[in-house]
Amino acid sequence: MKIRKLVAATAAFAALAVTGLASPAEAQSGPTLADILDAQGGGTDRNWYDFDILAAGVDVAGLSDALDDPSADLTVFIPNDRAFQVLVADLYGWWYLFADEATILNKVAELEASAPGTLQTVILYHVVPGEITSDVALSVPRGTELTTLQGGTIKVFPFGRTALLVDQDRNDLDPWLVRSKLDIQASNGVAHGISLVLRPSNL
Length: 203
Description:
By secondary structure, this protein is of the alpha+beta class. The protein has a single domain (about 1-195), classed as FAS1 domain (Roll). The protein is built from nine helices and seven strands, in the order H-H-H-H-H-E-H-H-H-E-H-E-E-E-E-E. The strands form two sheets. Strands 2-1-7-6 form a four-stranded mixed sheet. A three-stranded antiparallel sheet has the order 3-4-5, with no helix packed on it. Helix 4 (about 50-60) runs parallel beside helix 7 and helix 6 (about 80-90) packs across helix 7. It is globular, with a radius of gyration of 16 Å. One of its GO terms (cellular component) is extracellular space. It comes from Actinomarinicola tropica.
């Protein structure tokens, strides 16, 4: 599959992309990153601080196989449902801050339908080759740059017990690592919850 080949290719230069940040993950059994997102149930609910919308977006974008690849070694920054609500409100109008999860998911699907490939681009911008634990992320020099599978970069600015992730949209707020959602371990990498959706360009 095209995305699986992309993961394999980027793994070859993962050490360069995250120099000084990560060591290769040992092969382990257990749920993959895709399994962890699938466990969200594939629907919507009233909990804005889980990852239902991202899980659905991964399926729509055709990236489930990439996150299910047992040979991958990835770090995924996962925006919660509230993060997608903020994104939709920014793109379509402030009144979406009062919408329910199902409405927000529908708008995300509409975005993909109107501009195919958008979700794939955005989600791959949240994935970095190599496993980066929170201890490592919080101890790097301020402004350390990560290269994502999308090809763009994210800069990491540690602040005490969390870190700011600076994306490519200079006009909007950047996400923080969510302390209660760090180091979600998978057999093919690690996931960290973030407060907003990372933007690969000026949206």
